[in-house]
């Protein structure tokens, strides 16, 4: 019996793709959902998993060919051909009695979240031969947004690690094997192939670029050495070439900034070199992309926090007793921003090509510092929430952010962001936009300062506010109006209750 491998749905308005890379060749054994090939459209890269286990038969669409939706890519022979791969490991386990070998349970990459296709194995907590309990943490994966812990799917002995620390794995990759029978003897031979994974990881840079990328580089005369690949293992994709072609002047000086200044041998011996985490690399890239893409401008104002502080002091005990959560200042700022965004909707909008997309809702991003880096969990429909609901959501998401437990979905879809640098003592700063958002509010330290009130000098708790905005969509008048409305709402919180 044979199973057809066909082109999956490519997405709205996408009718064809190019076969970029085949990971298997005819005659290779394949497991169900194992990646067979990679397709490339003008928008995304699509991986094609095996629909069934067996042996890869004929490859109908070779690398470089253009195929339509549902086109036949290859065939998989099931049945007898599929039995051979399953039986192959048997000699390795022959050293142990069949009754002790137990059942081999694969440790797979868990769900990484929407739009996340790969991760890096950052830490293994167990070594080959270690006994593990079900749900005990085996290793930790790191994506460009969150850290993901991988629990043991069954109790037994860790027999094999197929993805060592530092290896990049896709969303359906196998990380290791657990012998659920608990036979340590069988685990040792099974671990032998593990070193073979190292050359594969090390050789990841020596990969074939996407055919469409090679063609475009040849047409435009672009040196592949000057193109940063974003595909699997650094493979150059079509969109990478387009980026390099659009801004060659910007790309060329980049290598000049990389070399370090000369370092003496004595200083070098006292240095410590640590590889950037994927999260930190992504933070750096997104912040720089924001500066390169948006016309970022910042406007400032200051707010007298007297009324907010008095209101909080008066009701915080009753608030916590009734709602089970502390009354902080973030709910005041969130409410004030939601109020101001209704009057100045362009601050809550985004640019999509030549269109402006106005959001008739507020998904508020609350920037949170974690040991791994800055993350921005999103509170959805914050404009419809009460003070207590906002405080509860901020507390809950903040804790899970620090623990690295946030899911991908919880950090996507924000329409506006608030960043509180004041918790670290910042007096003034210019926050950077969180693309594709058009506005971000920076909060700062509350500091007693002398202010002139009705002709008299009084000491007031003051905070500087900063609104960074995308000048392509938000004019100065709108930005200043937004910040003034936030200031008015905070200096007289009763305005929020009366929608003024």
UniProtKB/TrEMBL annotation:
<dbReference type="GO" id="GO:0006099">
    <property type="term" value="P:tricarboxylic acid cycle"/>
</dbReference>
<dbReference type="Pfam" id="PF02817">
    <property type="entry name" value="E3_binding"/>
</dbReference>
<dbReference type="GO" id="GO:0005829">
    <property type="term" value="C:cytosol"/>
</dbReference>
<dbReference type="GO" id="GO:0033512">
    <property type="term" value="P:L-lysine catabolic process to acetyl-CoA via saccharopine"/>
</dbReference>
<feature type="domain" description="Lipoyl-binding">
    <location>
        <begin position="104"/>
        <end position="179"/>
    </location>
</feature>
<dbReference type="InterPro" id="IPR004167">
    <property type="entry name" value="PSBD"/>
</dbReference>
<comment type="subunit">
    <text>Forms a 24-polypeptide structural core with octahedral symmetry. Part of the 2-oxoglutarate dehydrogenase (OGDH) complex composed of E1 (2-oxoglutarate dehydrogenase), E2 (dihydrolipoamide succinyltransferase) and E3 (dihydrolipoamide dehydrogenase); the complex contains multiple copies of the three enzymatic components (E1, E2 and E3).</text>
</comment>
<comment type="pathway">
    <text>Amino-acid degradation; L-lysine degradation via saccharopine pathway; glutaryl-CoA from L-lysine: step 6/6.</text>
</comment>
<dbReference type="InterPro" id="IPR036625">
    <property type="entry name" value="E3-bd_dom_sf"/>
</dbReference>
<dbReference type="InterPro" id="IPR050537">
    <property type="entry name" value="2-oxoacid_dehydrogenase"/>
</dbReference>
<keyword id="KW-0012">Acyltransferase</keyword>
<protein>
    <recommendedName>
        <fullName>Dihydrolipoyllysine-residue succinyltransferase component of 2-oxoglutarate dehydrogenase complex</fullName>
        <ecNumber>2.3.1.61</ecNumber>
    </recommendedName>
</protein>
<dbReference type="Pfam" id="PF00198">
    <property type="entry name" value="2-oxoacid_dh"/>
</dbReference>
<dbReference type="Pfam" id="PF00364">
    <property type="entry name" value="Biotin_lipoyl"/>
</dbReference>
<dbReference type="GO" id="GO:0004149">
    <property type="term" value="F:dihydrolipoyllysine-residue succinyltransferase activity"/>
</dbReference>
<keyword id="KW-0450">Lipoyl</keyword>
<dbReference type="InterPro" id="IPR001078">
    <property type="entry name" value="2-oxoacid_DH_actylTfrase"/>
</dbReference>
<feature type="domain" description="Lipoyl-binding">
    <location>
        <begin position="2"/>
        <end position="77"/>
    </location>
</feature>
<keyword id="KW-0808">Transferase</keyword>
<dbReference type="InterPro" id="IPR000089">
    <property type="entry name" value="Biotin_lipoyl"/>
</dbReference>
<dbReference type="InterPro" id="IPR006255">
    <property type="entry name" value="SucB"/>
</dbReference>
<dbReference type="GO" id="GO:0045252">
    <property type="term" value="C:oxoglutarate dehydrogenase complex"/>
</dbReference>
<comment type="function">
    <text>E2 component of the 2-oxoglutarate dehydrogenase (OGDH) complex which catalyzes the second step in the conversion of 2-oxoglutarate to succinyl-CoA and CO(2).</text>
</comment>
<dbReference type="InterPro" id="IPR023213">
    <property type="entry name" value="CAT-like_dom_sf"/>
</dbReference>
<keyword id="KW-0816">Tricarboxylic acid cycle</keyword>
<dbReference type="InterPro" id="IPR011053">
    <property type="entry name" value="Single_hybrid_motif"/>
</dbReference>
<feature type="domain" description="Peripheral subunit-binding (PSBD)">
    <location>
        <begin position="208"/>
        <end position="245"/>
    </location>
</feature>
<comment type="similarity">
    <text>Belongs to the 2-oxoacid dehydrogenase family.</text>
</comment>
